[in-house]
Amino acid sequence: MHNDFSNAQRAEVLTAALPYIRRYNGKIIVVKYGGNAMVNPQLKGQVMEDIVLLWLIGVKVVLVHGGGPEISEVMDKLGKKSEFINGLRVTDKETVDIAQMVLSGKVNKSLVNMLEANGGKAMGISGVDGRLIEAKFRDPQLGYVGDVTKVNIQPVLDLLEKGYIPVISTIGCDKEGNTYNINGDTAAGHIAGALEAERLIMMTDIAGILRDKDDPSTLIPHITEEEAKQLYTEGVISGGMIPKVDCCLEALNHGTKHVVIMDGRIPHSILMELLTDEGAGTMVTKG
Fold it and tell me: Model's pTM, two decimal places?
């Protein structure tokens, strides 16, 4: 690949990206990362490279990550069965401990390590640190699954100010000292809103919002808040897409400028979204 690309072409690509680099320099971008892009080691490496590249050109990147598959894997090893109600993991006291161990320990530190190995400067924190994510019980049936009640964003701002890429695992806490498993998309929406981020990028395992969920060519490139509500009613936004779009609207209502739902399985989709006029996925805006 590299040989087909002359130095002149390389230079041209960089100058074409200049207006976008100028636009995002010094701005906050929140990336919600999970699903397939996180399970495939090659894709994972590329996402980390993309984030370091953005950080090096002066974009303030905040990485919020999930880790559902990893939690299930560890539970299997411990002989504990994963149970889900409406896509949310039923979380007893032991499960929330496992979630905290896997997300804030294994997954979080491996991402920090990869960012550092690519030349970035990263710091991992969980929603418990500095009481970043305060939460309460969502539904007694679900156990320690939390609804976000408050975001104390100062620890993230402190890290950004010192030049770090904050890497956030979505464990929440309350004043009584309980810890909660928080849906990663929901947490990302709240964090992006609290930061009044320029953009929230949700990496998923599909191309974006599709008019026909089985046909990638029916991608809807841009929708407003009103149109999103219409698509709920029509049943176009259904299943696992509902919490994602809810979280987009949540972020927009709290001050995020644009939200993009994009395909994390495509190599360098983040760079295509931010540094080209093509973009990637579905952009959701207020109006």
Answer: 0.93
Domain count, the chain: 1
Q: What is the residue range of 106's domain?
A: 2-285
Element (H, E) at 33: strand 28-33
Exposed / middle / buried, residue 170 (Cβ in 10 Å: 0-12, 13-18, 19+): buried
Alpha-carbon gap, residue 218 to 222, rounded angstroms:
12
104-149 residue pLDDT tens = 999 999 999 999 999 999 999 999 999 999 999 999 899 999 999 9
Alpha carbon of 251 to those of 154, 218, 238, 272: distances in Å?
A: 18, 25, 19, 22
Q: Residue 275 sits in a domain of what CATH number?
A: 3.40.1160.10
Tell me phi and psi for residue 150, to 5 degrees: -160, 145
Please state, in angstroms and rounded to a whole number, the distance separating the CA atoms of residues 57 and 35: 27
Say which residues have a Cβ less than 8 Å from residue 133's Cβ, sequence separation at least 6.
Answer: 127, 146, 148, 151, 170, 171, 172, 173, 182, 187, 190, 191
Which tokens belong to 55?
Answer: 């950080």
Three-state DSSP state, 268? coil
Tokens 């006029």 identify what position?
277
